[in-house]
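Incident review: delayed structure delivery

Summary: a single-chain prediction request sat in the queue longer than the usual turnaround. Root cause was a stuck worker, restarted by the on-call engineer. No data loss occurred. The affected request and its eventual output are reproduced below so the record is complete for anyone auditing the incident later.

Affected input:
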Amino acid sequence: MIAETVCSAVAAAGLGIAAVTAYRKRFLTAARIAAYSLVPLGLVMTGVVQWAADTAFSPTAWAGFGVLGGAWLLFAGTRAVERRRGGTRKERKAATAAQPDALAPQASAPSLGPGSRATARPQPGPRADSADDFSDIEAILKKHGI
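Output delivered after worker restart:
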């Protein structure tokens, strides 16, 4: 009974605020405030508030929410383990059965062989004249007056 009274008072206050807002010629905002203020009144009239109050104080309802939460935790846990393992049991069996055919026998051998150090590193070549390198830069700077 208290919840219905509070919801009705909230609706009446909201409609009063909407009337003042409409008086200030802000009709779109007034309509939005009126819509929000009518929601609690509609919930009271449909019986949702009474149902919520009965549910909130019912031990059977809370036990039901606990059972639903436990079921959700079991479901989420099994999905997480399944994702970590790589799918369902059928999918894992199919993957292990197809695995030996997927690789060639030579593919499992190490590919590192004896290498020579002389061919691994290129020899440093003679350096170009540094004046040639900066001549282009100097020409660009002179062109711009720097």
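Verification: The chain has a mean pLDDT of 81.
Action items: add queue-age alerting; document worker restart procedure.
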